[in-house]
Amino acid sequence: MDRPGFTEALRAVAHRELRALRHDGWLLALVTWWPLLMVVVVAATFSAGLPRDLPLRVADHDRSATSRQLARFIGQAPTLRVDGSPADDSDAFAAVRRGEAVGLLVVPEGFERRLRTGSPNALQLFVNGQLSTAASVMQSDVQVAVTLFSAGAELQIRTAHGEAAATALGAVEPLRPGLVTLFNGAMNYEGFLVPALGAALVQMFAMFTTVVLIGRELREATVSAWLAAAGGRPGAALAGKLAVGMLPLLVIGWGLVGWLVLARGFAVAGSLPLLLAAWGAMVAANAAVGMLVVGLASGLRLGLSAAGFITSPAFTYGGIAFPVAAMPLLAQGWSAALPLTHFLRLQSEQWWMGAPWAVSMGSAAVLAGFAVLPWFAAPALVRRMARPAAWGHS
Questions:
Q1: What mean pLDDT comes out for the span 240-250?
Q2: 54-171 adopts what CATH topology?
């Protein structure tokens, strides 16, 4: 019997995988609706874009018209919600500890008098640093509100004493910094986090799916039937299997990009074709690494453990939540060894920064290396998995 060509062998393996998916609901979920559901949940979670109505307690020890006006002024910020005045400071701190408030603003006694006389005045803002994002937003917006309120009060006092408005304004704000946010100027968390977290989910499912698709052949001792379907071609055996598992994930990734661009208005500042190609390279890279992992592990359980070790914390080392340059050298090395890191860098450059192609070619080349190099070991991996001693283990 003639050995089938590569394309014919790949098609035969793909058909075999599709039959397996039709008869295994759990496997079908892993490949299709489970990752889709996770990405949809992430997109829905951050659909508001910015944190809204963060609860702030105001301990007003002055109880004056000016202190009440300040509380109302702060409460006008869309990100903040002033939840009234607590009975005392201990009650307010207890509310922060219980998670009922993100922060506490203490207005000291004599606040109005000091403000009118120009005496030194101090407000104290306490925030729950464990809620780092919410605390950062609250600190920034309270600071802006207090600065504007203070400047307005001083301007009113100066003009009431007969000073010209223009002169008074110059005295209140003699130096005005020109602060310009270059990328994601609205500080929108949907545009900032959803593409990155979506990619983190897709890369995790890509590696887990690869390990499961190959590892179940080892567990069920069906490696011989799998290789027979491929006509003894190791490359076709692996490629046909992974094509069935990875194509849905690629569609989910591209669908996420399309949703954010077309429905949510987050335009790609750089090259959309390069960004879409990078999604394909990222999925292929994690599949190739997963193939290497399960081949070396020669077992489903150990392969899944290794895949979890690699992919689950990958977002932490990706440079989105914490800058890679600020990490210890060991962490920087681990970051560079993860495909997700290079994809997230390329995605930021193309989606937000509008970088030229040449700037992203380094990250693209690394992704391509992750996607291609493990395939040179494919024949050896298949020979390793074809040993009966590796079969029948969980």
A1: 96
A2: abc type-2 transporter like fold (3.40.1710)
